[in-house]
Amino acid sequence: RQSRRSLPYKHCGRFRSTVASKQRKEVEGGKEEQQLVECTVVKAVQADLISQTKNNTDAQTRKIAIDFDNTHEAYKSKDNIELLRSLLVFKLCTFDFLVDKNKELMDLSKKVFGKRLFERLMKMTFYGQFVAGEDHNSIKPLIHKNQAFGVGSVLDYSVEEDLTQEEAEKKEMDSCVSEAEKESPGVDHREKKYKAHRQFGDRRGGVVSARTYFYADEAKCDAQMETFLNCIKASGGASVDGFSAVKMTALGRPQFLLQFSEVLVKWRRFFNLLAAQQGKSGMDALEQKLELEQLKESLTKLGVGNKDDIENWFTGEKLGSSGTIDLLDWNSLINDRTKISNLLVIPNVENGQLEPLLRKFTVEEEKQMKRMLQRVDVLAKHAVDNGVRLMVDAEQTYFQPAISRLTLEMQRIFNREKPIIFNTYQCYLKEAYDNVSVDVELSRREGWYFGAKLVRGAYMYQERSRAEEIGYEDPINPDYEATNRMYHKCLEFVLEEIDHNRKANVMVASHNEDTVKFTLGKMNEMGLSPTEKKVYFGQLLGMCDQISFPLGQAGFPVYKYVPYGPVNEVIPYLSRRALENRGFMKGSQRERSLLWKELKRRLLNGQILYKPVY
Questions:
Q1: Distances (CA, A) of 145 to 149, 233, 345
Q2: Which residue of 11, 66, 239, 610 could cross-link 342, Cys pair, CB 3.0 to 4.6 Å?
Q3: Residue 217, by phi and psi: left (phi above 0), alpha (psi -120 to 50) or beta?
Q4: Dist. CA 47–CA 63, nearest whole Å
Q5: pTM (2 decimals)?
Q6: Distance CA 388, CA 231 (A)
Q7: Locate the Proline dehydrogenase domain: which residues (predicted)?
Q8: In this structure, are strands 243-246 and 504-509 parallel, antiparallel, or unpaired?
Q9: Angle at which helices 102-124 and 571-587 pack, to 10 degrees?
Q10: Where are the beta strands (DSSP E) in 158-299?
């Protein structure tokens, strides 16, 4: 990377402009003919010769169609007891009373049956369905069995504190409000979206799937980092090309994520103001190409620096692509000599000055911010050493700009030779496509491997109610159809990037069969072979086996998110699984009907004692 010049202020950074060229690097040479073995679940369909002008070659490919109705293939890894358990659990998830009161009912069961009998009951039902085991050793048989049937694992230690709402709110307020704000509330003109609000302090409310961490102290963060390290080691030891999931809020005080997110968003807004002055508002981020001379003129008029200073900021540099300040680099960020508070400055359009987000940061706050970044660095290095990919989970929109930016900085360092760090993009967000396209463009320019996991999102109800009550724009797409369109738009963009430049990688994390079929159709059109391992698929353990296993047996890289942890400590996770499955199971009877179909098939064929062979 080229050296960066510093702004003539106490922070190190510079203005970034968005994209110049949308041209992609061409892939040299033709694509090899892809031979795919036809089996009962894979239908190989001969395709016409396609003229691939970018390669100046003709490639003959074989299209793949997966039969998601083939229950024999979908459930061949399950014995009959497992199929019956799935049917029971999914049926229970359709009863509103049981789902709404699931936490109370589990607590009551524990008291009535005692700890040992309760744990046994849970392992026969919900725990056995959705959780792999209690520790690294007990999950290995399930991981190896899934692997034998073509399905990999994303290990996810799913233990959470069982806090009351009041305890959660207190922890959140203590950890998200700085000393300066406590001393002089309202003085620093913080935006309300990026401030902590007690009524939304319990971040577990209105959330499906995602684990939630609350900050206690630095020792707790160190302990959570050790848990993630153990998870990475277990993933490396249990499978080849495994993934491990981490959450930024587990690794430090969330105050920094709130503040850094606000800084990034304000710089992006400032960039949009400059774009509007050139008549380029309302465009996609990649289309907002600022004229350099006009940009220099605008900055000079705003008084953000004199002409010579502004000239120096851009000299010898390619224009950036994010419209935000450019951090120094990862090594500098985690270096103890760099004061992170110097980076937390924002442009004041009224007086043309760069101002600190907060009037002051305490020495301890500086240390806490630094330690969070250092913990992330330790995890990334261990992932490289263990041959594991690191999946950074998405979180709430008031944390996410910082999480995404820190993940991107890690990708710049650790994704030079292959994709190690994967960022997560929530496609229920209105800005999802801009986020994906801008990051892909940056990876293309700088030559590192782009890694993305695309999800619809886990915080919709919470995000909507928080935006409405506190008074800022709802960040979520208006309806489910709009989210589907956004998902497919983002996915198609990354698939096209893979087609043109084999450095992009994507995990299609979806339980939606139509989305999976859409992906397979696009891969067929582009001649992308599953053996290239550029497109992955992901589903949660215990759900949508009729999608995961046929894909895996057809040679596609497919992964289950594999939660594990002691029974009593994963109760909060199981509680949310019940809530999520209520909507999922009420909306579709498909999985239950396929399970019944396979059970009937086995009974008619005399396979009452069926055992998977692997």
A1: 7, 19, 52
A2: 11
A3: beta
A4: 6
A5: 0.82
A6: 10
A7: 144-583
A8: unpaired
A9: 90
A10: 243-246
